[in-house]
Design a protein that fits this description.
The chain is α+β, with helices and mostly antiparallel strands and 112 residues long. The chain has 3 helices and 8 strands. It holds the Pfam family RRM_1.
């Protein structure tokens, strides 16, 4: 069941209806707009966050947030095998929600 409220002419999604995917292995210099364009074909994008520093494995990473996903496993399966300028993207369901992920990113920045 989706938790969506109508306010005026727009729909407002509760955090329970936001699905966050963790994306890695895209080339240096990839812009947020490119990531958004690739993933917008597969659902309604709420937000894209691209880290400014690489992860502990020295790879670029980003979080793509989708609104109103009804079947998360199906979405994750559809996103497998996507490429960004020739590089095979690694896509997984995010292990943490946004606030938790921000804390982890800050720890990574402090380490690097």
């Amino acid at each position: 069941m989706r938790s969506v409220d109508e306010i005026g002419n727009r729909q407002v999604y509760s955090p329970a209806t936001i699905t966050t995917m963790f994306i890695s292995n895209f080339p240096d210099g990839t812009r947020k707009e490119i990531i958004k364009r690739i993933f917008s074909k597969y659902g309604d994008i709420s937000d894209v966050y691209m880290a400014t520093k690489k992860g502990l494995n020295r790879r670029n990473f980003a979080f793509v947030r989708f609104r109103g996903v009804e079947d998360v496993a199906r979405l994750e399966a559809f996103l497998q095998g996507l490429k960004c300028t020739g590089s095979m993207l690694e896509v997984n369901m995010a292990k943490f929600e946004r606030n938790e992920a921000i804390k982890i990113i800050r720890v990574i920045r402090d380490i690097c």
